[in-house]
Amino acid sequence: MKKTLTEILRSSESFLGGRKGGLLLTVAVFCSTFLSAQFVPIEPSGTKVTITRQTVGSTVPGHVPSPALLEIKSGSLKESFSFSQNKVLGADPKYIYTFPELFSVVGQPPVIRTFKVSFSNPGLASLYYPVPTAIGGSTTIIPGCWTPEMDRGLFYYIGQTGSYGYGVTLTRTASTEYLLQCTKFLCHICDPCPPIIPTVSKSANTNQSKTKIYPNPTSGFSELEYTASGRETITVMVTDIAGKTLYGYKTDIESGVNKLPIDLQKGLSGTYYVNWQSSSGNAGSLPIIKK
């Protein structure tokens, strides 16, 4: 009798242990599936890419006589690469870079990837702009201050006949390849940077309710969340209440939710307007407060 009871108890423990193990396994599988469904990788997360700076000879018009420091910012992570202005061992300078693993939570806006470019000669630096994600897509930075899309940080004013600027284009030429192009623009008849009046309408539109800015108020860096119906080219401009443009750029975006950088780190405290206009016809404006 004692032996029979012992066998029954052992069988019960084995059965309960099996039930418990099965339950734990079920919970683990459920949690894994749930978490996988909640966290979506930000493309191109974990992708190893080659970034090449296209160079030209020093006698070729457009040659930039300065190394270029490319900074890529993924969320709060930053990494910089210095590219020579000349070929290295007969080839264009390049770096191998692996995009950090980043994930967005379902229902929340994706983490943004941005870049900026600096030139030590003569000491110029751009603001932050979106890293292109579409293959064949590009982001172009134009130096100057006479149209809303120009970057004042890449313009060097030394008089009406000697001023110049460095233009930059970052293109995703293939799934694992990016091309950095830098061009020097000469200004033969230049005036100091004047205030610029924006041309984008601030009227409401059908896509206004889908566009958000956060954080707002901001301490300097915010993001414009814009939903595209397909592949589009979008122009973003930031103006103060007097209509003077502080920041602007044009970039290619893909279908779905896109996060576009708004860099007000150099702006004074106050109210600004973030204006956007897409090749699809969508346009609008939202206020933002710089603390």
What key phrases describe this protein's structure?
291 residues; mainly beta; Immunoglobulin-like; 2 domains; 13% helix
Give a description of the structure.
The protein has 291 residues and is mainly β. It has two domains: 140 residues, no CATH class; 83 residues, Immunoglobulin-like (Sandwich), CATH 2.60.40.2550. 13% of the residues lie in helices and 45% in strands. The protein contains one helix and 21 strands. The strands form four sheets. Strands 2, 5, 10, 11, 12, 13, 14, 17, 18, 20 and 21 form an eleven-stranded mixed β-sheet that branches. Strands 3, 4, 7, 8 and 9 form a five-stranded antiparallel β-sheet that branches. Strand 13 and strand 14 form a beta hairpin. The radius of gyration is 26 Å and the shape is globular. The N and C termini lie far apart (82 Å). The N terminus is likely disordered.
Main beta sheet, described?
11 strands, mixed
Strand content: 35-45%
Question: Mind telling me the C-alpha Rg?
Answer: 26 Å
* Global structural class: mainly beta
Tally of strands: 21
| Count of spatially separate domains | 2
| Uncertain spans | 1-6, 11-16, 195-206
Taken in chain order, the helices and strands follow as HEEEEEEEEEEEEEEEEEEEEE
**Alpha-carbon distance between the two ends:** 82 Å
Mean of all residue-level pLDDT scores? 77
Oligomer state equals single chain
Shape type: globular
* Helix-residue proportion: 10-25%
